[in-house]
Structures are given as structure tokens and as C-alpha cells.
Amino acid sequence: ILADAGEVAVIPAPCYPVYRNDICKFAGVERYDLVTHHEISEIMDEPVLALTDLERARRDIEETGKRFRILILTSPDNPTGGIYYTDRLREIANWCVEREIHLVVNEIYGLSLINTDHPDIRQDYAQTATFSSFANVMAEMRSDYLHLWYALSKDLGISGFRVGLVYSQNARFMKAYGNLSLTHSISNHTQWILQHLLSDSEFMTPYLANNQARLTESYALVVRRLRRLGIPYVPSRGSLFVWADLSEFMTADSEDAELKLWRELFDSVAVLLTPGPGFGHSKHGLFRIVYPCVSRPELEVAMDRIETFISEKRKVKS
Predict the structure, then answer these.
(1) Residue 96: what pLDDT?
(2) What is the mean pLDDT of residues 184-189?
């Protein structure tokens, strides 16, 4: 709806791999992976996205005779867990509106936040920052080029229900979206269940607090071990992931070597991570650890196995 086939959606890398299917397969929109850094040490505090990066992307796209039509941001980010601060979002939004580029902010992990004051991880954060929804910027600017996307899949763990929403002040877009989504409506029964669930503050308030506390404990478990092993990672402020650098153990600086390491880890200790190819980034050897999908005892076992694998690899190297 927001772009025609052959136009371009820009997404800062690394980014959710399935965006390619989401925007390309049906709509024919092209994906442009905007690489703004190489080493993860460059994004320890927040995602790197300057206006000069956006201008570079626009120039590259226009030189091919195509149009930069959409910018997609995810906050908290998948896979890095970084958040875009309000001032940065406002700056980017102004740039997009001035150039009539649609800015879509995906906040699907907006309530899956890490408590950065946790004693085991607070050392990783140079400054205190809280997540603030892009809806606040939208309310200030009231532009047809600003849009917010959300779903209940992650924060409530009900991805099978397939329930999401879009918020926009663009009346033409919302009318078209309503027509297009008519054949994808969720059932009345699902709507009824979620109406009761979301209006039950006695359940939802403690649920969200407990979910964030448990998420933080599992996150802390993972990064404590990575820190002890000397494995670089991006300090997460939200989402369900740790973005870690295992390039030390690659036999070459290539995608083939990256996939070989990914398969070797699985075959030797039966731990499955998400490899870098598909995230659109320039550095090989970065892996996504999805840690909330198992219980705490199982996560302990998984990290023990990763530690065993790393120790053996280092013995061989020495």
C-alpha cells in the first residue's frame, strides 16, 4: 500500500531476515540493507543511524533509477536488542516527512524489556534510557508519513493467534489497509478472548512485570557466561535476543565459514543459534541467541554446552 512494486524499503542492518519475504514476495518491494557499522563495539549504547546514512542510501537508490519509499525501524531491535531514543526518532521522522518517505516503526517487542539496573548487567550500559513508543512522536508531528506497527505475538507469547495492529494518521492508507486486510480478519472468538485478556488489569499488570523480570534473569544468565568466555555481545535493552560475535572461531572471513561454524556448533553440542546470513550485515561470524524459548535449567545446559564448544575450539587453536 505504501510502495509500488520496484520501489525500495530501507532497513538498517542487521535486521530481521524475514522482512525480505514480508515486503518482497507479495508486494514486489525491494529491500535495501543499510549497513551503518561493521563491529558490534560501534552499537553498544544504541543503534547507529545518522541522517548521513539515510542520505547515502537515498543517493545509492536514486542512482539506480529507483525510489526510496519506506524506512523500516524495529525498536527494540531484532537481533541487537537496541532501542531508538525519542530524539533520534524525531530527527529521523523529520527527515522522512520532508522527503515524503514513509517511516514505519515496528514495536513488536515494546513490552519485552530488559531491566538494565539488574546488578549483573548494569555495567554494560553507559547511560540510563527507557523505551518510549514512537506513538508519542506521531502525536506531536501528525504526519501522513509516520506509521506504527505492533503485534501480540512476542509480548504475550501468542504468535499462533496472528493478531497485530497498525496505527497511522493517514486516512487513505488506513482505508486501503482495511480493504486489503478484510480477508485476513481474526475470528470473533479470538477477538472476544483478547478483549477480556487485555481489559483484565489485575492479570496484565503483574504478568508484564513478571515477564520482564524473568526475561531479564534469562538474559543475565546468557551474558554472564559470554562475558566470562570473552565473547563480545551487544548489550540488549529489549527483545528476545543476544547478538554475539563468534568470528574468532571461523576458519575464514566468509559466509561459507560462518555457516560451517553454525553447523559445527549444532552437530557437536546440539545447540542451534541463528547464523548471520539473512540479517544483511557486513561482518561475518555474528550469531543471534534466542534465549527465552527454553526454561532456565535448559538455558543453563545450553550455555554449558556453548562453553564446552568454545573451550575445545580454543584448545585446538592454541
Answers:
(1) 98
(2) 88
The structure's pTM equals 0.95
Strands 30-35 vs 8-13: parallel, antiparallel or unpaired: parallel
Bridging pattern class, strands 146-151 and 164-168: antiparallel
In this predicted structure, the answer to whether residue 233 has a pLDDT above a threshold of 80 is: yes
Identity of the amino acid at 159: S
Alpha helices in the chain (DSSP H): 19-20, 51-63, 86-98, 135-141, 171-180, 188-198, 201-229, 255-269, 296-317
Alpha-carbon distance of 62 to 103, in angstroms, equals: 18
pLDDT, tens digit, 9 for 90 and up, residues 111-143: 999 999 999 999 999 888 889 999 999 999 999
The Cα–Cα gap between 32 and 71 comes to 10
C-alpha pair distances (Å), 36 with each of 77, 110, 184, 280: 15, 23, 36, 11
Query: CA-to-CA distance for 148 and 159, rounded, in angstroms?
Result: 19
Write down how long the chain is.
318
